[in-house]
Amino acid sequence: MAKPGYRLALFATLLTVVVVVLGAYTRLTHAGLGCPDWPGCYGFLGVPMSEHKQALAEMRFPEAPVEVAKGWYEMVHRYFAGSLGLVILALAVHALRRRGEPGQPLKLPLLLLGLVILQGAFGMWTVTLKLWPQVVTAHLLGGFATLSLLFLLTLRLSGAARALASFSVHLRRLAALGLLLVIGQIALGGWVSSNYAAVACVDLPTCHGEWWPAMDFANGFHLTQHIGPNYLGGQLDSDARTAIHMTHRLGAVALTLVLLLLAWQLRRAGLPRLAGLLLLALGVQIALGISNVVFHLPLLVAVAHNAGGALLLLTMVLINYRVSAAVTSASRATVEQAAIVPLPCK
Predict the structure, then answer these.
(1) Model confidence at 103, in pLDDT bands (50, 70, 90)?
(2) How many Å apart are CA 12 and CA 63, to the nearest integer?
(3) DSSP secondary structure code for residue 223 in this structure
(4) Which residues pair with 207 in a beta bridge?
């Protein structure tokens, strides 16, 4: 039976999916600086629409001419993100009021509240630091972390049965490895996007017609470079962007092999539905990634690729939740069984 707060947590999870997709759309339409200030837009609560307001906006920010469409992309994303923050605040208040009740998580809602506050700061720094790649990537990872933790909270409040058959510790470790690799691949994807390296290679399976093209890893992954005046469009040269793109490709290959092995192990362990869901999410993400290269990064496909990453991440959270719960339940059962076994008489 679902616990109080389940529907609110589920709503927050779905709202986070919308926020993540809107964030991807904003980034991919180069609207990250559609409003040059934060939290408003050119000093207004919304995008300036009248001629008077636009003239005032351009006087305030002469280096950033008003682009109405890009401004609205950015502001709609902020409106939804702000609404999500209020919902997470409600979840935290609900958890505090019901603390001590059986099955009511407290640390997780409070962690989410802290995370969404940090996300607000990253949103501000994304604008004030002019799309600095480190901040943009961290902001993206924070969004995916918020999504995965909200989904975990939803699972914990769902009241779904957690007792499963006993699984090996090897399966739990493989699932954890898969989750870590998915997070790493999402981080690489964010680094590709924030450095505008998605079209650094326009052919498959080679890049520039070579299996190992010229690449500059030192500059491509120089994480401590100084903050530049504006990163819109990127500042790296071709070899550095190629290095980022190829690293993302190689990461995708490694991740695919691990997740295929995990799907096989899940099927052997008697979880064919989870295995099928994993293969579906993986297959969709691979197809979208290939389409981005073949069709030269069409907007809808690129946005769908971000959504596919979210789906794959949630799938891995679900798998780890089920498998770890099963191992924990099995371990407790073993301890309880050992406790009631009578000792032999001397």
Answers:
(1) confident
(2) 37
(3) T
(4) 210
Residues 6+ apart with CB under 8 A from 218: none
Q: Is 237 helix (H, G, I), strand (E, B) or coil?
A: coil
Cα angle 219, 131, 216 (rounded to 5 degrees) comes to 10
Q: What is the pLDDT of residue 133?
A: 95
pLDDT in tens, 178-229: 999 999 999 999 999 999 999 999 999 999 999 999 999 999 999 887 777 7
Q: What's the pLDDT score for residue 162?
A: 54
Q: Is the pLDDT of residue 341 over 80?
A: no
Torsion of CA 18, 23, 29, 34, to 10 degrees: 120
Model pTM? 0.91
pLDDT score at 224: 84
- CA angle (306, 312, 317) in 5-degree steps: 125
**Which residue is it, tokens 């972390």?**
145
Does 62 sit behind a cis peptide bond, omega within 30 degrees of 0 on the bond before it? no
User: Is 67 an annotated catalytic residue?
Assistant: no
Round to whole Å and give the CA distance between 153 and 145: 12
If phi over 0 gives left and psi between -120 and 50 gives alpha, with beta otherwise, what is residue 222? Answer: beta
Provide mean pLDDT across the span 319-338.
Answer: 60
Contact 322, 164 (CB under 8 A): yes
Longest dimension (CA), the chain: 97
DSSP, res 310: H
Q: Using alpha carbons, select from 340, 339, 326 the residue that is nearest to residue 163.
A: 326
Would you state the structure tokens that stand for residue 174, as one six-digit string? 């493989």
CA geometry: angle at 110 spanning 308 and 329, to 5°? Answer: 70
Catalytically annotated residue among 63, 67, 74, 101: 74
DSSP per residue, 263-323? HHHHHHTT-HHHHHHHHHHHHHHHHHHHHHHHTT--HHHHHHHHHHHHHHHHHHHHHHHHH
